[in-house]
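EI: anyone free to look at a 76-residue chain?
SC: sure, send it
EI:
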Amino acid sequence: MKPEKDLSTLASQVTELEEKLSFQQRTLEELNEVVLAQQTEIERLGRELSNYRKLTEELLERNPGEDLPHEKPPHY
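SC: here you go
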């Protein structure tokens, strides 16, 4: 192979690798944004679940005589 052809081939390969790297960097940034959004949502849902647990505990404390989980439904 001629040296000019080798340089041309190498230049093409470098260009192709740079394009792939650029695409991967962009993809990584997009995935990072998705992960951050998911983490924010998970934290929000965790707080909401905690609030519902507290509310459930408060309601059960207000009505200690009612044992709803063990009662039979009205049709029995």
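EI: The chain has one domain: 1-60.
SC: 👍
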